[in-house]
Specification:
2 copies of one chain form a homodimer. Chain A is an alpha/beta fold. Chain A has helices at 19-31, 56-65, 83-90, 101-115, 120-130, 158-164, 186-193, 207-215, 218-225, 247-253, 260-271, 285-290, 305-323; strands at residues 12-16, 37-41, 47-49, 52-54, 136-138, 146-151, 154-157, 171-177, 199-202, 231-234, 237-238, 241-242, 274-278, 294-298.
Chain lengths: 324, 324
């Protein structure tokens, strides 16, 4: 059960991974009221560390949208201190995952409440409130979904690949453990079925690591495929490079062409009606359109707040144009 | 298994609760080398909080003997910060147990290692090393023992009684859950059986709450009863008051006379040969001696380091005199 009001019928749903997704979500927040926007965050990156249940992508969304994220690092909280980590390190403990003191408090509170039987969706919404955020951020499911990375040096959980091994191993396959049996959150299902829904926007997060774990939830995939509202992806690629992270590297390792074309064909016309690609990639338009996917070409970098806001507004407008 | 050297044959064993016990242990440390002293700490106060496994008395011993304890509070660490607690509190979480940031790191490290299957004795010894302490501090057992306080308002774990309810409820009974089936640490058993052992000293901790959980371990009680070395207790009472904590209150609630006489008769001549009582209680000497327990009268307050050292030296000498 979530704490969302029964009358909550968002007109826009955005699917987000961590940092890239949070940037677009921040842009959307400046375009849409809290009653209009539902933010669905990836939980495939969730993991246990120091005995805590950590949801890095949901936290990045909460921190970014509530204005307490660390702009310098791109992750974690601003004004953070590292007393606990430094002491754990001194005691010989695991220090490969950098947990700040204030961030740690969030994991303590979430873990305590999950251990008491509360759902991740309820805890996430209460965290939003505690951070003064009235926007709705939800995991796609309250069940356990874990992105498992198969590599040339062995099988590992996402954070082990991403943080501990710094994306160094060659990815040979990806699995979303638990996704097949996971139940889509009823509130998301309602939002997807809402006839007044105006768009589903897939943020420029890593398609394989951040968006796929959401799409791997059978009911989500089915309902997105049948959704009447326009579905628009924003590509995380500029040429053969991604905004950040290992998207391009993984794309190559999995044998795909390293470009926005792969992003479009990965989602396919079954799940998206349109895709926003960078001006640098205008030459991909004919190939993507041949997939039955409409294109919108613009500057997709989101360094400044104005760029986030502009791209978000363009995504909303693009979706609107597809619905006409 | 513990990491203690096989050749470790301490000449003195001290049983300790938290703060009062740690004071005497600090005095003993200044009188005895690390090869001479074994400190056995209470684990009946151990509990789980925020998902961590916390051993307050063992930590007080480690912090006090390594010189990092907080002199002002009497618990926790010096130079402590409270970032995590403040943030957990702000998020609406449990903040009744005051965990500092550096203290928290110790609980994270202990919990992680216990969850990985290491023993509490091994983890405690490694913590000693990490704090630059070459003295041996051990739990009496690696099994779970919990002091359960039965009160007029319900049954509760020790920390709930002690910290959350500030010793306010009326104690009707005490149990040491798990003690009966717990196994005495082999290293402590060897030390108790060592023919060169010169004393077992029971520190002036709460007999019911801090020492009883150790004595409740069947093999400990049996071996202490049969121990050849003199066994000396230091009373935590001065008149009808205890140095600190709820000792006097509980003594009264359980129907005992509130005095050092009760401490002596509680341990009984089966477990102690002598008791050190305060000069204020010199009138109790005949009654205590009638129990078959020898007495040593001195100033038992340990505010200054010199007082701790003097009382420790007197305890050693008193034990020595009983062995003659």
């Amino acid at each position: 059960m979530t704490a969302i009001s029964k009358d909550f019928c968002p007109s826009h749903i955005v699917l987000c991974g961590g940092i890239g997704g949070a940037k677009l979500a921040l842009g959307l927040k400046s375009c849409l009221g809290s009653e209009q926007l539902m933010v669905v965050g990836n939980v495939g990156d969730d993991f246990e560390h120091w005995g805590f249940k950590i949801s890095p992508d949901l936290d990045t969304l909460v921190y970014t949208l509530s204005g307490v994220s660390n702009q310098e690092f791109g992750w974690g909280r601003n004004g953070e201190t590292w007393t606990v980590l430094e002491e754990v390190s001194r005691l010989g403990g695991d220090d490969w995952f950098r947990l700040g003191d204030r961030d740690l408090a969030v994991h303590i509170e979430r873990s305590t409440r999950l251990d008491q039987g509360e759902t991740l969706s309820k805890v996430t919404q209460d965290l939003c409130k505690a951070f003064g955020l009235d926007y709705c951020i939800l995991p796609p499911t309250d069940d356990r979904v874990r992105t498992i990375v198969e590599t040339n040096v062995g099988i590992m959980e996402f954070q082990e690949y991403f943080v501990r091994n710094q994306c160094d191993p060659v990815v040979t396959d990806l699995r979303y453990e638990g996704a097949e049996k996971s139940r889509l959150l009823p509130d998301i299902s309602s939002a997807l079925l809402n006839p007044d829904l105006q768009s589903v926007i897939i943020s420029p997060s890593n398609p394989f690591l951040s968006i796929a774990p959401i799409l791997a939830i059978p009911d989500f995939q089915k309902q997105l495929a049948n959704c009447r509202a326009p579905r628009v992806a924003v590509s995380p690629m500029v040429g053969a490079r991604a905004f950040k992270g290992p998207t391009a590297k993984i794309m190559g390792e999995l044998g795909y062409e390293i470009s926005s074309f792969t992003v479009a064909s990965y989602y396919s016309s079954n799940l998206i009606d349109g895709i926003i690609i960078d001006t640098d990639d205008a030459d991909l338009v004919p190939r993507i359109e041949k997939l039955g996917i409409r294109t919108y070409v613009t500057d997709t970098l989101m360094n400044s707040f104005d760029e986030k806001k502009r791209l978000a507004a363009e995504a909303i407008q693009f979706a609107e144009s597809l619905g006409e």
